[in-house]
Amino acid sequence: MNFEELSALRPDLAFIAHWVPKGAHVLDVGCGDGVMLRHLQVDKACSGYGIEIADDKLLESTKIGINVLQHDMEKGLGLFGDNSFDTVLCLSSLQMMQHVEALLRDIVRVGAEAIVSFPNFAYWPHRVALARGRMPVSKLLPYEWYDTPNVRCATIYDFEELAAECGLEVLERVALADGKPVSFLPNLRGSLGVFRLRKKTRAQSST
Amino acid sequence: MGSIGNVTPQAMHFAEPLRLQSGAQLADYTLMYETYGTLNAARSNAVLLCHALNASHHVAGTYDGDPKSAGWWDNMVGPGKPLDTDRYFVIGVNNLGSCFGSTGPMHVNPATGKPYGAAFPLVTVEDWVAAQARLADRLGIEQFAAVMGGSLGGMQALAWSIMYPQRLRHCMVIASTPKLSAQNIAFNDVARQAILSDPDYHGGDFYEHGVVPKNGLKVARMVGHITYLSNDDMAEKFGRKLRNAAENNAYAFDFGIDFEIESYLRYQGDKFSEYFDANTYLLITKALDYFDPARDFNGDLTRALASTKAQFMVVSFTTDWRFAPDRSREIVEALISNRRRVTYAEIDAPHGHDAFLLDDTRYMNMVRAYYNRIWTESVTDVEAA
Q: Is the dihedral of CA A126, A131, A137, A139 positive or negative?
C-alpha cells in the first residue's frame, strides 16, 4: 500500500508512518490487519514483525504479506530481547490491555523508540455524552459500555502522566482528529492521542 | 477442490555410500518417493514434505483399485487444497530405516546376506535430510520453494534450513520442537522397552524366526497414541464410557476390556502391529530423541539457527502437550533473535498433537495463505527478473 492509499484509508496511520525512519526494524504490537507494517515494508523498506492474538487478523496479516506472530500481548514481550527494534508501534491497542503499565515498560525495553496511540477519552463529543449522562459512543469508541474491548479509558493528559511515571521521555505528543494534527486545545479537540517515546538515558533519569 | 487421484510410488537407487552421523555408513540404498503436480521450467516450484513417525512417501492421492488408500496429508495436498498441486510440484519421500519401501532393517544387508534387523545403523534427522538432498539433486531441484513437515517432519524441515540454507526459500515447521523433553524421551523409551522385551523380538532378528513382536509393537503404539491426543479430546470421545454399556453398565471384574478407551487403544495398537516394523519403530524413536541442533552450540538455539536463510512459518496447537506451543515458541524466539522472517500461528484446536493432520479451518487457512504468499513472491521475482 502506498502513502496515498494509506492516507485515504487510514489517515492516522499515514501520519504516524512519518515518524518511522526508513529501513527501521519495527515491531507492531497489535498489528491488526497488518496494513501499517505492510506500508512500512513497501514504502519505507522497513523490516520486522507484527503481534496479533485474533485468528482472523492473523490471517489477514499473513495474506497481506507481513511477518505476524500470534501472541497474547498481556503476556508481555518476552519473545524479544532488549533494544531489538528501532521502533515499536502500539497503535490503538493499549486501551484494551489489563496490564497497561507493564506492557508500556516492555515496549520501551525492546525498542529504541516507541509510538503509542489510543482513543482520547477527553475528546469533546465524549465529554458531551458524559455531560448528558451517557457513556460516549463514537467512531473511535464504537462500542457500548457492556461489550467494549477498551477496558482502559485515558485522556492525553492521563497518558502523559503514566509515561512520566514509567520514566519515559516524550519526544512528540500529537492529538489527531480525522488523521490531522490538532494544536489548539488538543485534549479537547483530538480524538486520538499519539505519543512518540523513548527511555530516558541514565543521566536524564537521575535528575 | 478434489483429490489428486491415483498416484504411483517410485523408487530411486543410490549407489554412492552415505556416511551417517554415527560414523556408520550405508553402502547403497533406495528411497521411495511420490510426486504430485508439475515441476516448472525454472524448477522453482518444488515443495518437499517430510513425514513423521509412522507415515511414508504416500502423502496424497490414492492407489489404483484402493479408494481407501488416501495419503496421510491428503486434506492438505491436492488441486485447490492449501498446498495446491496445480501450482506446486510436491514431493513425498520415505526416510531411511522406514518400513514402507526405502532401505530399512527388513532389507538384506549386502555385507551379511541376511536382513539388517537391529544391525541397521541408527539414522538421525540430519542423515535423513542428507539423503533427501541427494534425491533433490537427482530430480534436478537446486532450491525448494518450501520444505514442510509436521512433528518429526518439522524437525527435518528445520534441519534442512540449517544444513542447506541456500536450498529452500521457506521452511514450514508444524507441531514440532527443537528438541525432545525428558518426558518425551521417557515415553519413547517405554515404547522401546515394550518392543525390546517382547520374546518375539529375538534381538531384532525376528524376520528369520518367522515371527513379529506384535505385543511389543502394540503397547508401543498405545503409549505413543496417548501422547498424540489431548486430555480433553479423550474425555470427550471416550470419557469413562464402558465397552458393553448395554449390559447393565456393569464392570466385568476381570482384566479384559471394560472402558471404551481401552478398546480404542488396543484396536489402534493391533492395527499398527499388523503393518509397522519393530526395528523401524525403535530407530525412529531414537532419531527423535537425538534431534537437538542446538547441542553443537552449547544449547544455544539462536546460534544453531544463525546459518539459516529461509523464511519460516511455525505452527503449534494449544492442546498439543507432546510438542507444546512453548517448544514452537523457542524456535520462533531464536529466529527472531536472528532477525529471520517468521510467521507464527498458535491454533486453538482441541485435538492435541494429532491436530496437525486434521482439518481445522484456521490452520488450513493459514497454510493456504502462506502458500499463496510464496506463490505471489515467486511470480513477482519472475517479473522483476
A: negative
Q: Which three cell numbers stand for residue B189?
A: 523409551
Instruction: Tell if the CB–CB gap between B342 and A47 is shorter than 8 Å.
Output: no
Q: What is the pLDDT of residues A39-95, one digit of tens each?
A: 999 999 999 999 999 999 999 999 999 999 999 999 999 999 999 999 999 999 999
A42 touches B: beta carbon within 8 Å: no
List of chain A residues whose C-beta atoms are within 8 Å of the C-beta of residue B311: 67
- At B247, list the grid cell: 449390559
Q: In one letter, which amino acid is B162?
A: I
Count of Cβ atoms closer than 10 Å to residue B15 Cβ: 7
Instruction: State how far the alpha carbon of B385 is from the alpha carbons of B115, B181, B378, in Å.
Output: 52, 46, 10
Give whole-number Cα distances, B242 to A75, B230, B261, B264, B269, in Å. 42, 20, 9, 11, 19
Catalytic annotation present for B353: yes
What's the distance, Cα to Cα, between the start and end of chain A in Å?
44
Residue among B343, B365, B366 minimizing CB distance to A67: B343
Note whether B197 and B216 are within 8 A (CB).
yes
pLDDT digits (tens, 9 = 90+) for B158-174: 999 999 999 999 999 99
Of A25, A68, A84, the CB nearest to B343: A68
Cell triple for residue B136? 533433490
| Minimal CA separation from B349 to chain A, in Å | 12
Dist CA A14 CA A178 (whole Å): 11
- pTM for the full predicted model: 0.95
At residue B151, the 3 state secondary structure works out as coil
List residues of chain B with CB under 8 Å from any CB of chain A: 311, 329, 332-333, 336-337, 339, 341-348, 362, 365-366, 369-370, 372-373, 376
Note the residue count of chain B: 385
**What is the identity of the amino acid at B353?**
H
Pairing relation of β-strands A85-91 and B77-78? unpaired
